[in-house]
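F.,

This is the one I mentioned.
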């Protein structure tokens, strides 16, 4: 990995499975080097997959099979800007339908516990709209959603 800054994501032993899923699901994503442990370690044995180099939408990541000591939390998430309802639906269903779970306001978790915000660009533009009343209507509409409904955000924005 040649990047000066890389996200290191901790997994219990499924870093390669997660990286492979991300590469198949998100554009500009790929699995790179799979590095095996040179010796035994607390959560594995020599020869086990220790780290996986991968990119998610152009962001360099390192999956570390560190064991069960640490879990992902909502304090970190990937925020994915989508262009329309079809892309929003596709990514949402890929994550949730692969053992993940829904949350509120466009957030969901993948089966490894990593949080994702599937955020249509229209939502980001709506809640930062200079017309604060329109922005509030869009914001209030979003607050009642799980997966973001683009048409409902546009309707709320229009009043």
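My design for it:
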């Amino acid at each position: 990995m040649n990047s000066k800054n890389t996200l290191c994501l901790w997994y219990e032993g499924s870093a390669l499975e997660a990286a492979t899923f991300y590469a198949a699901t998100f554009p500009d994503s790929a699995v790179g080097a799979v590095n095996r442990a040179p010796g035994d370690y607390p959560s594995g044995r020599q020869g086990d997959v220790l780290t996986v180099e991968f990119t998610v939408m152009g962001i360099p990541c390192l999956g570390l099979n560190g064991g069960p000591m640490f879990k992902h939390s909502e304090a970190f998430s990937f925020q994915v800007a989508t262009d329309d309802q079809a892309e929003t639906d596709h990514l949402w269903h890929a994550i949730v339908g692969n053992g993940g779970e829904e949350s509120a306001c466009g957030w969901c978790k993948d089966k490894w516990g990593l949080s994702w915000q599937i955020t249509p660009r229209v939502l980001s533009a709506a809640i930062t709209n200079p017309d604060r009343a329109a922005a509030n209507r869009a914001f209030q509409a979003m607050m009642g959603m799980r997966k973001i409904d683009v048409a409902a955000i546009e309707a709320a924005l229009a009043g």
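Helices lie at 15-25, 85-96, 121-127, 132-143, 150-158.

Talk soon.
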